[in-house]
């Protein structure tokens, strides 16, 4: 739904030289960062932080994690994070009291004002006590506790301590109930392991919804037993060609369960009635002329539509909704509805009149791109705003009726937009989105006539026309995902770019320990463990077998400085030292 332009791949460059990080880019600004004090480095920023001067808690090898019975799974999650890096056993034990040592995860005793998703974290010399009203609230508090520990605590191998947490009382709760991210697995298929890895990354920033864009013109990514060719044929390719892929029902349920264990709700999307070429190619009867079109591997939009006048269309849609809804415990089913340019307005209304009741029939509430809400007066339906303007009559009317709007303005929240003209991945039809652009907007006032009381939350979509690997996801999502997450969680009164960029820069050691290959924006003072980040400009690439203005095929190899690199996807190289740009186009071998 989100493209209007060809992909232009130019190169941002990362290299290590003489202990400093050198980036060939389009600016010349040296930035030096020192490690931020832990209480000033949490993202999203908590609602209230009261430091306890002179107090520090040190996690020791004898520490235990105590939980109330309903919170045992949260305790197991925390232990799973801490054990590999600390080497401590950290047994998880149930308790009915208030422990005076170790880490206590307790349901009950928290302020009522924090609601179902908030928490209160108290750190003293002897103990860390985390209280909440629900396991979800405790899980959110655990993410804050992780960030109060050194970033290397995220490592999967033993690290040296000490493992200290600053004394404080943090009382925290979300601004919006819905803080989401979307992953498009249709344009390029992403396997289960990649999706689970992204879920783990989302959890760290208190994201609680994962929207999976399962179908589009270029691929159908989930098995539907009653229409098997959707997956086996419709899922057999992807943008640019290639094998594509799809999830079995068991694999989809594995993703849903992994998300649920991290208190993330999966929202499946089947985009209708447009963006349906993969389905139309799989079954000729779904076409008005009875002729199946060819599979598509380009990135065009707006040309496909289910045949609104055929009864088989609605049997098809009902079967799809019924089977996917049965696999999905969450309350929402996303029906797309965007860019239906090949469907007349009357046919679009007719289609939605038939389809939206089917969503309710199978126990779900309708969510869709904001166009769809013009066809219904159901105030439980959730329009997802993806426009690039701050005024939209359809969304304004829906808000006036009582619908809650999910904010995903493409020129602010789309993680597939290029950071600038030099970044190698992404599109630019909605403009460039640097980190400050992603952070400096207010979901509660962004669209005229849609007050904060009418906003359900925010979502950061990641479309994958140019996103092929897990490293590509890292590069486009980080650091901007953290910016959108803070907009969804933190009170607007805390909003400050100058403060946020420092807290964001402090995430670098954590992301490095987690293996996240993020984009080192020159707008952010990154904590590089005491080194200096320098940004400069050059038109003379370093010597080596790599060269600019060369068309490299996937699998092509080049050498530089005694290292060999393999090309991850076809592209024409640009001036600048390209091979070390691992998150984008090259893999060191």
Tell me the layout of helices and strands.
Blueprint lengths: L14 E3 L2 E5 L6 E2 L15 E12 L5 E3 L4 H15 L5 E3 L7 E6 L11 E5 L3 E6 L2 H14 L14 E10 L5 E7 L7 H13 L4 E5 L1 E2 L2 E2 L8 H4 L16 H12 L4 E8 L4 H6 L28 H17 L4 E5 L8 H17 L3 E5 L12 E4 L7 H9 L3 E3 L2 H4 L21 H5 L15 E8 L7 H8 L2 H10 L7 H9 L2 H7 L17 E5 L14 E2 L4 E4 L2 E5 L3 E2 L13 E3 L1
Parallel strand pairs: 2-21, 5-6, 5-7, 7-9, 11-12, 11-20, 12-15, 15-16, 16-17, 17-18, 18-19, 19-20
Antiparallel strand pairs: 1-2, 3-21, 4-10, 8-9, 8-10, 13-14, 22-25, 23-24, 24-26
Helix pairs in contact: 3-5, 7-8
Short structural summary:
This protein is of the alpha/beta class and 589 residues long. The longest helix is centred in the middle third of the chain and has 17 residues, at 311-327. It is globular, with a radius of gyration of 24 Å.
Shape: globular
Alpha carbon gyration radius: 24 Å
Strand order of the largest sheet: 11-12-15-16-17-18-19-20
What proportion strand? 15-25%
CATH class of the largest domain: Alpha Beta
CATH fold annotation of the largest domain: TIM Barrel
Q: Averaged pLDDT, please?
A: 89
Number of domains: 3
Largest sheet, if any?
8 strands, parallel, barrel
Q: Just name the CATH architecture of the largest domain.
A: Alpha-Beta Barrel
Number-wise, the strands total 26
Specify the CATH homologous superfamily of the largest domain: Glycosidases
Helix content: 25-40%
Catalytic activity: Hydrolysis of terminal non-reducing N-acetyl-D-hexosamine residues in N-acetyl-beta-D-hexosaminides
EC number: 3.2.1.52
Domain Chitin-binding type-3: 543-589
Protein name: beta-N-acetylhexosaminidase
């Amino acid at each position: 739904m989100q493209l209007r332009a060809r992909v232009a791949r130019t190169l941002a460059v990362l290299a290590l030289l003489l202990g400093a990080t050198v980036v060939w880019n389009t600016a010349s600004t040296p930035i030096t960062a020192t490690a931020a004090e832990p209480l000033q480095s949490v993202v999203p920023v908590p609602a209230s932080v009261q430091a306890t001067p002179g107090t520090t808690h040190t996690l020791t090898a004898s520490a235990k994690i105590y939980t109330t019975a309903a919170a045992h799974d949260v305790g197991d999650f925390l232990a799973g994070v801490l054990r590999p890096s600390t080497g401590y056993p950290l047994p998880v034990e149930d308790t009915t009291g208030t422990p005076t040592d170790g880490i206590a995860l307790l349901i009950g005793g928290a302020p009522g004002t924090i609601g179902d998703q908030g928490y209160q974290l108290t750190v003293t010399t002897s103990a860390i006590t985390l209280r909440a009203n629900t396991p979800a609230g405790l899980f959110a508090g655990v993410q804050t506790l992780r960030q109060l520990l050194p970033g290397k605590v995220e490592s999967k191998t033993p690290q040296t301590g000490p493992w200290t947490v600053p004394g404080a009382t943090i009382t925290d709760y979300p601004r919006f109930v819905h803080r989401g991210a979307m992953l498009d697995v249709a344009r390029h298929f992403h396997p289960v392991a990649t999706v689970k890895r992204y879920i783990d990354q989302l959890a760290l920033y208190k994201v609680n919804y994962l929207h999976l864009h399962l179908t589009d013109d270029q691929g159908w990514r989930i098995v539907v037993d009653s229409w098997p060719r959707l997956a086996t044929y419709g899922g057999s390719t992807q943008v640019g060609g290639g094998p594509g892929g799809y999830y079995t029902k068991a694999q989809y349920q594995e993703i849903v369960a992994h998300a649920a264990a991290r208190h993330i709700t999966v929202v499946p999307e089947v985009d209708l009635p447009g963006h349906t070429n993969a389905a139309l190619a799989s079954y000729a009867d779904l076409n008005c002329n009875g002729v199946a079109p060819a599979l598509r591997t380009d990135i065009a939009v707006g040309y496909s539509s289910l045949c609104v006048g055929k009864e088989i269309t609605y049997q098809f849609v009902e079967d799809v909704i019924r089977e996917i809804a049965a696999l999905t415990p969450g309350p929402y089913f996303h029906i797309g509805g965007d860019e239906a340019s090949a469907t007349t307005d009357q046919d679009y209304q007719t289609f939605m009149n038939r389809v939206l009741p089917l969503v309710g029939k199978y126990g779900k509430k309708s969510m869709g791109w904001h166009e769809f809400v013009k066809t219904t007066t159901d105030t439980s339906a959730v329009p997802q705003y993806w426009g690039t303007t701050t005024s939209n009559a359809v969304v304004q009317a829906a808000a006036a009726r009582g619908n809650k709007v999910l904010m995903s303005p493409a020129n602010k929240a789309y993680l597939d937009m290029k950071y600038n003209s030099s970044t190698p991945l992404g599109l630019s039809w909605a403009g460039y989105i640097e980190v400050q652009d992603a952070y400096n907007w207010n979901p509660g006032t962004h669209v005229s006539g849609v007050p904060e009381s009418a906003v359900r939350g925010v979502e950061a979509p990641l479309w994958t026309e140019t996103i092929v690997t897990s490293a590509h996801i890292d590069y486009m999502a980080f650091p901007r995902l953290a910016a959108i997450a803070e907009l969804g969680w933190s009170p607007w009164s805390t909003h400050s770019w100058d403060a946020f960029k420092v807290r964001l820069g402090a995430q670098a050691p954590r992301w490095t320990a987690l293996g996240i290959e993020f984009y080192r924006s020159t707008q952010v003072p990154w904590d590089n463990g005491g080194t200096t980040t320098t940004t400069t400009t050059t038109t003379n690439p370093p010597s080596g077998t790599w060269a600019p203005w060369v068309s490299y095929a996937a699998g092509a190899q080049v050498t530089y400085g005694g290292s060999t690199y393999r090309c991850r996807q076809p592209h024409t190289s640009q001036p600048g030292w390209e091979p070390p740009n691992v998150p984008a186009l090259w893999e060191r071998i």
